[in-house]
Structures are given as structure tokens and as C-alpha cells.
Amino acid sequence: MRNKIVAGNWKMNCSFDEAEMLVDEILDRLEEQEELECEVIVCPPFPYLEMLTDMEFEEQQFNVGAQNCSAYEKGAYTGEVSAKMLRSLDVDYCIVGHSERRKYFGETNEVLAEKINRLIENNMSPIYCVGEVLEEREANRHFEVVKEQLEKGLFHLDRDAINDVVIAYEPVWAIGTGKTATPDQAQEMHAFIRSLVKEHYGDAVADEIRILYGGSCNAKNATELFSQPDVDGGLIGGASLKAEDFVSICVQASQIKEKE
Ligand code: PGA
Description:
Number of domains: 1
Number of helices: 12
Number of strands: 8
CATH superfamily: Aldolase class I
CATH architecture: Alpha-Beta Barrel
Shape: globular
Helix content: 40-55%
CATH topology: TIM Barrel
Order of helices and strands: EHEHEHEHHEHHHEHHEHEH
Strand order of the largest sheet: 1-2-3-4-5-6-7-8
Bound molecules: 2-phosphoglycolic acid
Radius of gyration: 17 Å
């Protein structure tokens, strides 16, 4: 059985005070829940990571993630933040290859493969994002594009390392647009991704690996998306900035597991 994951990607939002208020409210609301059966990850901007990793929280399944890391190990790379630095703050996860990084910062699959290597070397779990833009879907190239992102960015890892990776399918046309993929569209792509993992790493790895959906996932559509057999939770942008909505999404993920 794959435990569901709900990861919040705050992107470049919140002042320090706002971040503190938001995480306090998230944790208060999570604590009100009895036995949440899903893993919750919050990915704030770099300057707030330590505030979050320092927080005491009884719930074992609350983790902190970064939104990016350097492809380099260390040294004269002004402005960069290394995987090792993140690890030293007890950060467990890091988003890699978000479409905004690919688009605005020119990150290629090859650079992303290096970032993933740095994270694995430092015992962190990459949340590797893949997904097609609208024109690619309209041209029926979405499977091909996602396959290439996986083959060039991720599938160089060996069998041991891949076990630490979470994949997030985020159709770019659905991110921040309010236009969610239908549950069928999500399931179709997730099943395809799992079949590729199976081809490269075999049944056991494919059965275990978590594949999250991202792109206008919110408190209203989470249950129907997460109920799909190959959707193991979500990577949540906009709705992760509202504690009530974010925790509602976590609860919905958790209830699906209980039903199974
Ligand atoms: P969204 O963003 O939920 O605001 O669409 C998702 C993401 O970018 O990870």
C-alpha cells in the first residue's frame, strides 16, 4: 500500500510573519486530526526553512521540503543553495524541475539530473516534476514529452536511489490556471509514468513509487483526483497558502487511504 503524500509549494510568497502564521495554523489544524494517514510536506522559500524544521510537531508524517537546490556541490556559485546546506537544516525533500524553474530559469533535464544527484548524495528525497505545456498536449505529444523528462532527468539513478524519489505530474496548462486535469487525464498519465518506472526498475519499484498530481488541485477536487488508482497525492500551489484548504486536502488524502 502506498501512503499518500500532500506537499505544499508556497513558491515566492509570504513575509516571515505571514509564513509563521501560516505554518502555525497548518500545524494547529493538523493536530486537531486524529491519525492522519498521509504524509504532509511543506515547501516554503529558503529563508523560512529553518523556522519550519525547528518546529516541534508530534505528527511523525510532517516534513519540510525546499523548492530548489543547486546542481553544484559547493564553492564559488554566488546566490546558490546546496543540497548539503539543506540537509544540515534537516530538510528532507526538495522539489526539482518545477515547470516555473524550467521555463523562467532555463533548467534543462540535464541540469535537473545533476540536482537530483546532489540530493541523493545528501540523503534527501527529490520531488521531480514533469509535465507538458498546452501546445504539446494539443499536438498529442504529452506522453513523449513526459517520457523524455523522465529518461533524461531521472532514470539515470540506480535502483536503490530511485526508491527515495517522488514524481509529480504537473501539466503546465493546469498550474495556477484553475484548469485542472480531469481525473481520467491524470490517471492516464500517472499509469503511463508508472509503466515507465516498471520498464526501467521492475515491478517492486513501480508499485512503491509515489506519483503526485499538481495543477489547480484544491479542496474541492482533491478527493476525485486522489481516488484514481495511480494518483498518490498532490503537489499543491495556490491552495497550500490557505491553511484551511491545505489541511482539508490532507484530510481528503488520508480518508482515501482508510477506505482502501
Ligand atoms: P497550483 O500550483 O496548485 O497553484 O496550480 C501547483 C504547482 O505549481 O506545484
